[in-house]
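Journal club prep — side note

Before the paper discussion, L.F. wants everyone to see what a predicted structure for a comparable chain looks like in token form. Sequence:
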Amino acid sequence: MPPPTGPGGGGGGGGGTGGGEVGQQRQGQQQQQQGGMGQTITGIIRMAVFWYFISKFISPKKAPTDPSILISNLFQKGESLDMWFYLSEHERFNDFSNEGALIWHETNIPYAVWGPESTRSLSLKYHPSEALKHNGTLYAHIFFAQSGYPPDPSDPEYQPLAAFGRTHPVVTYLPKSKSDKRKSLLGNSKDSEEVEAASQVVDDSQADSKDDGPVEWISYWKPNVTINLVDDFTKYPHNAVPPNIAPYLNVEPTSGNYFPTLFFNEFWLLRDKFIAINDTVTELTLNLEVGPISMTKWQLFLQIDQSFQVHRSYGSMLEGEADELKRVFLEGNPYLLVITMFVSMLHSVFDFLAFKNDIQFWNKNKSMEGLSAKSVVVSFISQLIVFLYLLDNDTSWMILGSSGIGCCIEFWKIGKAMHIEIDRSGRIPVLRFRDRESYAGNKTKEYDDIAMKYLSYVLFFLVACSSVYSLMYERHKSWYSWILSSLTSCVYMFGFIMMCPQLFINYKLKSVAHLPWRQMTYKFLNTIIDDLFAFVIKMPTLHRLSVFRDGEI
């Protein structure tokens, strides 16, 4: 059964611009997801390969050796097959005499033979019916039979062991994007009014609805249908078929053997290729292809899709992030992809070593001479702003956890750089920060105060200008969101100038012996990697500028 549908006219009219709203909402999420992209790719590939080899080579039970209780493929390798491709709005199909439903017919397709004659393709235009335009559904019914035999069970020449088929939906249903809650806080932005008007067109019926209201579903057209015949002639034990194979095995009940496995390959069909179906759609493109697929490739596709589902269930991957990973393989250069994966591993190693040496340095550090205590405080404030911004934008728990741990570490470093005391003299206990003697008793504090004094002039001016621009020309959910987004933008764009106090202290003291050199070395290597790949990997411009912040200590 398809998901519940809303009113026909409302569902169709909003589908045309729904994709644009989704793109606007996800544009801000790309910035949050970029940091964990490399770890997600590594985890998915590792899990997929591990599951595949475990299911391939480790059997839960001893397979019986008696050939009489083994099931095998009913068809032989290289056997010629005929194919019929029907389109119908009914899930069950038996109208074989309807020539209008038959849109593709191929003959003499060699089964499990690799060559140009085993792959066939067709592109056509389909004119949707009125029912399909109003959240209707459409099914593809594909039948194969040995050459010379019909797929129709009512035909006198029909042979049950010579024909097989499967049904696949050509229309999928996705929830309609909710109305954008962002608005112009001043209410006088021309650009904001235009975007808000477009948002009302998309979801005018839900403008005043609550978040817990009914979800409206919209039908989307799949422009590509790829039919793969799995090259599988394995003899499986009758009662011990591998669990990753059993759901796809089409067993013939009388003989106990199985028909060739039909796999509808949608691995490379990205969501942004779907076409929203509404009243304005008069013609839809349908690209069809039939061909063989190896057992290894088929299982690899299945395991990767399962790993995507596991990551989504644990919150380590957001909706749509799997398509972005696939897009890297589709549109990226293979050599660049290999280099990127190798460099990502180095980046992770350097990140871990920098983190370890940073903790060791501040844990063993007994003197603040030559170190900027105010830079440590500002670094904590910046990390806290980013954490609150991610929390306000419904980021996955994995990214939130990483940012939260970093925030706690920065606060711990404040305790190493300054004395933290709890003042209980008032009604509400408050934290008091006091400079350490090694910091206040020499020139370090004087130079740090001078650097922060002039730096604050520049920083406050940039923050004010950026915040005013964001308030006038951008939309926000609330004043709180505006404050967070403005501060976060400043952290990303101007965070690299936070290194200035430490540089000023180094210049005045004419020494750098007090700095954590090991941590700086690993950060320097990571900065080179970030600066190099920031202009190669697709990411928002704001996030691309943020790589310059890695130079701060």
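L.F.'s comment for the group: Residues 1-35, 59-65, 189-212 have pLDDT under 50 and may be disordered. Keep this in mind when we get to the figures.
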